[in-house]
Fold this sequence. Notes:
The protein has a four-stranded mixed sheet with strand order 3-2-1-4, sandwiched between helices. A hairpin with a 4-residue loop joins strand 1 (273-276) and strand 2. The N and C termini lie far apart (91 Å). The chain folds into two domains: 35-123 and 131-227, no CATH class; 267-361, name from scop (3-Layer(aba) Sandwich), CATH 3.40.1690. By secondary structure, the chain is mainly alpha-helical. The protein contains 14 helices and four strands. It comes from Virgibacillus byunsanensis. Keywords: Bacterial flagellum biogenesis, Bacterial flagellum protein export, Cell membrane, Cell projection, Cilium, Flagellum, Membrane, Protein transport, Transmembrane, Transmembrane helix, Transport.
Amino acid sequence: MQLQLNLQFFAGGAEEKTEKATPKKRQDERKKGKVAKSQDINTAFLLFFCFITLLVFGSFFKTNMATLFQNAFSEYIQWEVTESAVHQVFVSSTIEMAKMLSPIMLVAIIAGVAANLTQFGFLFTTEPLKMDLKKIDPIQGAKRIFSVRALVELLKSLFKIVFIGVITFAIIWFYKDEMMMLAFKNVDSALGFFGRIAMTMGIASALALFFLSIFDFIYQRYDFEKNIKMSKKDIKDEHKNIEGDPLIKSKIKQKQREMATRRMMSEVPSADVVITNPTHYAIAIKYNEDKASAPFVVAKGADHLAFKIREIAKANDVVTVENRPLARSLYDVIEIGDVIPEQFYQAVAEILAYVYRLEKKA
């Protein structure tokens, strides 16, 4: 009975990941270099464009290769084997081979970059290069080897080998009669025939691999989406991390309100008049033609805050005027720092005129 309860507890503890990944989760995974991609698309791009390059530059490769062999068997073979001679042969051969291979290498780089850009756009990250002991963990390695994903990859590889093997065999079978007659042709014709067969099989294999890679990309995308799914708790935790803990946020807002209140109270002594309700509302108004074209509010409050405003005004000899409808109306429609709306000009002007008369008499 106790064992059953423990099993139920652990089963309920791990929350099932049923929700789609949030944009932040996707961005975090992308920064780690984890994106949905098919290696077969890279291989198909590479094979196709490399064979196209061989087809276009075939005569260039043939000429350079023939020149290299001609020099080797007609000139280099007669040289005395010395250190300088070996160095010269090595340097000249390397330069010729570099000339031949440079178009293929350039096309291979462009094809690899294009294949990745096609799948997931531009991505540069150093996260996969960081040291991670989990990668050399034998237990984790054994789990990966004997996992469902490994079995799927094995079946995919076998299917690709069979599919491409059938295509290449079909091409050879199609040209079998011409292949049987090669014994009656010269070397150039035989090499040309084998070159055409190789190009045909290479391009056909690349196209077949590209066709299979479309399905592989769909599977990789499905598997990626499945692996980055989140539980409802994960989404809540992420939201909490982004927005901040509600308790901390409330404390920050409280501190901000306290600081704003202190700043507001420090402006009350400079006000010209405080209009009150008289107990529920208090609006401190100041007129300074250098700052604004009309009187503006420097402080306002209700209930306890209104009481504090009245206290500060009294302590600093700021005139307090009771006008219930005006105080209530101003409190509802105006914020601190705003100028008085036009519809209240006359009422406020009368109060300021009254205040200025009192100050003049004083």
